[in-house]
Amino acid sequence: MILVFGGTTEGRAAVEVLDEAGKPFYYSTRGNGQSVHVVHGEHVTGGMDALAMESFCKMHGIRLLVDAGHPFATELHHNVVKVAERLAIPAVRYERVYPERNPAWVWCDSYADAVARLQEQKVVRLLALTGAQTISALRAWWANGETWFRVLDRPESRKIAADAGFPLERLVYFRPGEDSRLLEMLRPDAILTKESGESGYFEEKTAAATRMGIPVFVVKRPPLPEGFCTVSGKHGLRYRVERLLPGFFPLRSGFTTGTCACAAAKAALSVLLSGQEVSEVCVALPCGEEVALSVAFVSRSEDSVACSVVKDAGDDPDITNGREIRADVAWDSLPGVHFHAGEGVGTVTLPGLGLAVGEPAINPVPRRMMIAETEKLLRRAGVDRGVSITIAVPGGKELAVKTFNPKLGIVGGISILGTSGIVRPFSAEALVETIHKEIQVAKALGCTHLVINSGAKSERLLRQRFPNLLPQAFIHYGNYIGETLRLAASEGIGQVTMGIMIGKAVKLAEGHADTHSRHVVMNPAFLAALAHESGCPDELCVRISRLALARELWTLLPAEHPFFQLLVRKCETICRRFFPQGKLELLLLPEMA
Fold first, then answer.
1. What is the model's pLDDT at position 593?
2. What mean pLDDT do residues 385-400 have?
3. Torsion angle, CA of 135/139/145/146, rounded to 10 degrees?
4. 577 has a pLDDT exceeding 70
5. Coil, helix or strand for 393?
6. How many Cβ atoms from other residues are within 10 Å of residue 407's Cβ?
């Protein structure tokens, strides 16, 4: 059993992650002010001190604590660590993502330090964006200065201000997107805010002041007590829960070769820059959250550093699971980041893969991840030099014969892959069960319109098209199109939109509702027949019959060609076998790098 402490954006995210397991847990908030959608968990309210927390854990068999509270909730953080130590159970801190600290701002260690620094700078008119709970802490300032507090428009906020003796006419209320208007109206000498992270509107609060040249004073977030296992996003939380509480999720997730390569490259560059070895490194996933990976090996030479990360694919039957992903990093005479294929990493020999012929088979997303982390480290170190990154996978050449790489013209080894950075475990039974649970959660939250899609790339496009739908309405079918539609029908879902890319669409149109490559591959003869039926000339039909990749159809035919319309109609016919009633919409999505 798991107990989560929330009342924050991170708390809601934690609930969404744990709900996916379909197992009971507890979610605790101080009050009832936050709307919480808990399907499989139980929402409990009322603050807990250390004694009450320990008693609750013993009574309900809690085996894991998750602290997703506000970064300034110091008492909560210390109580969670204290109780975890007493009961010998793990404690996870779901931390926020924090922007880099701007050196032009005044960074304060505490509210008392902020008061002293405001006095030193001779600030008179202050707009405090620190919230109602900090009014008492800043009494030494506002008792003698012209101060406004921006607070939430709630009776509790006004009561806190009144109890502290703060004049209510000096309260202004939070309205999203109105930072510039408020600053124009009040014209303060400075603003004071807390380092509350991205989900705390920190960047929005400071951006308007920076544009207007208003000095920014920031109270640093308090340091966390030792004893936490820290994560900073949904994937990181699930990964830690899977390993700290085995069995809570049906299967364990893992990280892609791209994420492992990125972590190895970042670790190697860190050592090259600092000379100090690292045992763990955090990297940003394409979704923006950071995950921590262990560094298995570090080797230094005179002008380069090599580090490796062992691939953990979770319960996915990935051929690279347990393999060493290695990065050798050295300075380059040319500016920018340059990639090379080391032992076991393939080289591209045919067009159509989104990489130039002759390039190492390191896909675009892993490249972007490594470039971003490299540039970040160089910027922090104040270094302006080119970097050479060589990725190697010992034994990768032998592994490659078990993949589609030889057919795709990738020779000499495997590809460094990954779109989301995360490996979702593959198991037909478990994956279909997970899809069913996701549909049930969506239904429980009132979703009558589901948007099903194959994965991260297609979901990004579809979220832009349907911005008002709940996150739970977007469900990955992976390769199980038929099963997903059947489950949606069995749960009484009235409307389904399916996003599909060309590679899966050509398999589905032929009648294959499970599009996994281990069961079915693209049939060029079927495509040629489809081209003929849509009116393509014989010469074009012959060219289509020789295609190696379905995505090449986009280069041969314009998007409005009748071929694609016919392809969609045939896909819809197959889908109707599984979703006979209700509104069904099929969207053929463009390829993304």
1. 43
2. 92
3. 20
4. yes
5. coil
6. 11
Q: Where are the domains of the chain?
A: 2-97+224-244, 106-219, 254-423, 428-589
Nearest to 455 by CA among 230, 286, 252, 266: 286
Contact (CB, 8 A) for 309 and 294: yes
Taking the C-alpha atoms of residue 83 and residue 225, their distance in angstroms, rounded to an integer, is 13
Residue 228 has pLDDT above 80, yes or no: yes
44-68 CB burial, b ≥16 within 10 A, e <16: eeebbebeebbebbeebebebbbbb
Residue 518 has pLDDT above 70, yes or no: no
Q: DSSP string covering 153-210, please?
A: SSHHHHHHHHHHT--GGGEEE--TT-HHHHHHHH--SEEEEE---GGGTHHHHHHHHH
Give the separation between CA 557 and CA 564, rounded to whole angstroms.
9
The pLDDT of residue 196 is above 90: no
Residue 148's DSSP bridge partners are 127
2-97+224-244 CATH, one of 3.20.20.140, 3.40.720.10, 3.40.50.720, 2.40.170.20: 3.40.50.720
Res 327 pLDDT > 90: yes
Q: Averaged over 2-19, what is the pLDDT?
A: 88
DSSP string, 496-564: EEEEEEHHHHHHHHTT-SB--TTT----HHHHHHHHHHTT--HHHHHHHHT-S-GGGHHHHS-TTSHHH
Tokens of 102: 């701007």
- pLDDT value for 52: 92
Q: Would 2-97+224-244 and 106-219 be classified into the same CATH topology?
A: yes
Distance spanning both ends of the chain, measured CA to CA: 41
Short-list 131, 150, 149, CA closest to 194: 131
List the beta bridge partners of residue 3: 26, 65
Helix (H, G, I), strand (E, B) or coil at 481: helix
Contact 336, 386 (CB under 8 A): yes
Say what the pLDDT of residue 516 is.
Answer: 60
**For domain 106-219, which architecture applies?**
3-Layer(aba) Sandwich (3.40)
Class of the domain covering 254-423: alpha beta
Does pTM surpass 0.85? no
